[in-house]
């Protein structure tokens, strides 16, 4: 079972904004077009069955959750949109900051360098019980260089931004006049009105009827046949929307939500839940890592045989201060805009 964590670099990385970083003008131009074409979907809220008793145990139990109206971004935040935020604010992301050795005396020098986690596809099949066989900490990996210093987002302006921490996502959301969704809001939106269905498009998935999400085909993690048209992230909105007009609520990249992670749901029905407390979440985390947050939706690295999590009820934990090249986010606003 995949876990987005690396104990050797279990960190809480902090820092303040730095000097203005000028993003490429082509990214900013794309931002305007994206904002006009995608926008937000207003959802009236209501009551739905949250969770699942049919899959992984952390998705249980199923209970009734009632939500007030909210609006959610139709797509994941793109590189172009994030670039506009950075240009306007001078924001420096978590992955761009070196660690202070005095704060982390036990870490080797290479892990003190600014960087992030990158998927490293093995050439041959490997055992699935050791994620270190396909994940690497890469100095210099960050949102502009998602696979390392030699990589670029040029030509990927309409792909979801990755290599951001949840703190980076929250900073963007505040700048954009929104916030991160709660897990309940995200799951309600992902279901698209299909209460209790296994997927965001219905109960079944037959690829012969057409690909519905950007996921992994082949033998994970060594062979991705990319039959769905993409290896790695896809441009946002590459597949059909769900019943609420939302894109990529399954696959492409995992998405941060505001809830702290614990391995399960409450047993009682709830109204507008905000998730467990940080104190409770710390009881289910390594002390060096600290409390983690929930990510939803699965990613292009999810395969039926390994990470069967491109479903609305699926959930995983993510460290607060460590990004990867398959986690992004979208934002919400209160009320129906």
From TrEMBL:
EC primary class: transferase
Molecular-function annotations in GO: formylglycine-generating oxidase activity; protein serine/threonine kinase activity
Keyword list, A-Z: Kinase, Transferase
InterPro entries to which the protein is assigned, alphabetical: CTDL_fold (IPR016187), Sulfatase_Mod_Factor_Kinase (IPR051043), SUMF_dom (IPR005532), SUMF_sf (IPR042095)
Pfam family membership, one: FGE-sulfatase
Domain of life: Bacteria
Domain Sulfatase-modifying factor enzyme-like: 43-333
EC number: 2.7.11.1
Classification via Gene3D superfamilies: paralog of FGE (formylglycine-generating enzyme)
UniProt protein name: Serine/threonine-protein kinase pkn1
Source organism (scientific name): Roseibium alexandrii
């Amino acid at each position: 079972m995949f876990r987005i964590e690396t104990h050797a670099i279990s960190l809480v990385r902090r820092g303040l904004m730095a000097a203005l970083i000028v993003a490429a003008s082509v990214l900013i131009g794309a931002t305007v077009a994206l904002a006009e074409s995608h926008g937000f979907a207003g959802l009236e809220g209501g009551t739905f069955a949250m969770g699942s008793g049919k899959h992984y145990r952390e998705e249980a139990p199923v209970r009734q959750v009632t939500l007030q109206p909210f609006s959610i971004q139709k797509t994941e935040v793109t590189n172009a949109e994030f670039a506009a935020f950075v240009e306007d604010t001078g924001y420096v992301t978590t992955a761009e900051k070196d660690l202070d050795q005095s704060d982390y005396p036990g870490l080797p020098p290479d892990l003190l360098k600014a960087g992030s986690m990158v998927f490293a596809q093995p050439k041959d099949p490997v055992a699935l019980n050791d994620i270190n066989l396909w994940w690497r900490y890469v100095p210099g990996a960050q949102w502009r260089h998602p696979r390392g210093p030699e990589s670029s987002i040029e030509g990927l302006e309409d792909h979801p931004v990755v290599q951001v921490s949840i703190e980076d996502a929250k900073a963007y959301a505040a700048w954009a006049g929104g916030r991160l969704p709660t897990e309940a809001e995200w799951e309600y939106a992902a279901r698209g009105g299909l209460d209790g269905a296994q997927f965001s498009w219905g109960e079944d998935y037959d690829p012969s009827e057409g690909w519905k999400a950007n996921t992994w085909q082949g033998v994970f993690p060594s062979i991705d046949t990319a039959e769905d048209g993409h290896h790695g992230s896809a441009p946002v909105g590459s597949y059909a929307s769900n019943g609420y007009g939302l894109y990529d609520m399954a696959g492409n990249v995992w998405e941060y939500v505001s809830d702290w992670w614990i391995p399960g749901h409450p047993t009682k029905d709830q109204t507008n839940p905000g998730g467990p407390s940080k104190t409770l979440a710390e009881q289910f985390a390594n002390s060096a890592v600290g409390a983690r947050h929930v990510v939803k939706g699965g990613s292009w690295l999810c395969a039926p045989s390994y990470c069967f999590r491109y479903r609305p009820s699926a959930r995983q934990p993510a460290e607060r201060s460590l990004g990867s090249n398959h986690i992004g986010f979208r934002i919400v606003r209160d009320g129906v805009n």
